[in-house]
Amino acid sequence: MCSGSFAKCLGITLIPLAILCILCNILLFFPGGLTASSNENITDEVWYFGGILGSGVLMIFPALVFLGLKNNDCCGCCGNESCGKRFAMFTSIIFAGVGLAGAGYSTIIAAVAINHGPKCAFDTASNSTFGYPFENGDYLSNSTLWDLCQQPERIVPWHLTLFSLLLIMGLVQAVLCAVQVINGLIGTICGDCCGCCGSDGAV
């Protein structure tokens, strides 16, 4: 498979992942699927926009670049100076780096949020307060602690599911962008379709 075609496949995969990450981040603004009574009641990590900016907007640009790589004329990839294929593949490495940074940011935010736990209403020794009842991810291995969160309802599985999805999709995006870095290097050095000149530009 030509490096341009392979990059297009990566771009096609990244687009739905980016959309899903944006949706997950938006859903996190509705704790437990309900409208928050105050912005202060929303988990802090949600406001870092890991899914919207990191795995979302920053991932759209590399995906579009990867999708457009195959549109160049393949015949110029074997040494024709007028062909910009090698430069296009080199540019894709830069955009893949941007995607890696975005996916890494989203993954780190998601991991911190999972360890931190959700913000919710819970009882203290003196009264009921809104904050973080869990410490250092202790609720992950002990689901009985989930009952500490009284409001919003179902906030713990909501928080854990959506941030886990962001974590997994961020890791997948990072791997795909890393693969494109390698693919882009190969395309920059060898051209998009090594050997295509002997077949009149056929892929």
From TrEMBL:
Main subcellular localisation: membrane
Protein location: Membrane
GO CC annotation terms, alphabetical: membrane
Record Pfam families: L6_membrane
InterPro entries named among the record's database cross-references: L6_membrane
Cleavable signal peptide: none
Membrane topology: Multi-pass membrane protein
Keywords: Membrane, Transmembrane, Transmembrane helix
Entry's transmembrane regions: 12-34, 46-67, 87-114, 155-179
Family: Belongs to the L6 tetraspanin family.
Name of the molecule in the record: Transmembrane 4 L6 family member 4
Taxonomic source organism: Synaphobranchus kaupii
